[in-house]
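help with this:

***
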Amino acid sequence: MDWSEVVRKAVILAEKTGYVTFDQLNELMPSDEAEPEDIEALLTALSDRDIRIEED
């Protein structure tokens, strides 16, 4: 999985609303490929870009 593509898509979503939701992130991430380390890296990448993650 190209996680940079997931981050890029999340950034695009966040530009529209100022945040992304957990549901949106779940739709972007293929669950069969997501390891806990991958999810943590994704959340860190979003945080580093000042993107908030909101409850659904």
